[in-house]
Amino acid sequence: QVQLVESGGGSVQAGGSLRLSCTVSVSHFDDYAMAWFRQTPGKEREWVGCINWSGESTSYADFVKGRFTVSRDNAKNTVYLQMNSMKPEDTAEYFCAAGKMCSILLRPEDYDYWGQGTPVTVSS
């Protein structure tokens, strides 16, 4: 049974920062690309960014470029999402997902495993 567990969510004021973590209970964690998604009630799940198996390559959605950073520590089976200069519109449930590659073209159904999410609230 593969499990992904997100942590680090919470409440922050606009302009502040949060760092999310996702720990993965799977062998050969470095076989997987990892991605972050977010979802607001009543809206579709949207792709935030991803990182390839080695951490060499990252990709980001336009609405977070320059503010968010995805990184990973394969020795700890963990992927991170550092969120800076946060805006109220960043409020959402944040999910990590494991898949075959890091690409904006991958759909949610293309990912092999998902975490349960961690809530993030940004107040003005």
- Count of runs of 4 or more consecutive helical residues: 0
Task: Report, as a whole number of angstroms, the end-to-end distance.
Answer: 40 Å
- Helix proportion of residues, in percent? under 10%
Low-pLDDT stretches are none
Got a strand count?
11
Overall 3D shape: globular
Rg from Cα? 13 Å
Strand fraction equals over 45%
What is the H/E order? EEEEEEEEEEE
Summing up helix and strand content along with how strands pair, one would put the structural category as mainly beta
Notable characteristics:
124 residues, seven-stranded mixed β-sheet
Task: Tell me about this structure.
- With 124 residues, this protein is mostly beta strands.
- 0% of the residues lie in helices and 49% in strands.
- The chain is built from no helices and eleven strands.
- Strands 2, 4, 5, 6, 9, 10 and 11 form a seven-stranded mixed β-sheet that branches. The chain has a four-stranded antiparallel β-sheet with strand order 1-3-8-7, with no helix packed on it.
- Strand 5 (46-51) and strand 6 (58-60) form a beta hairpin.
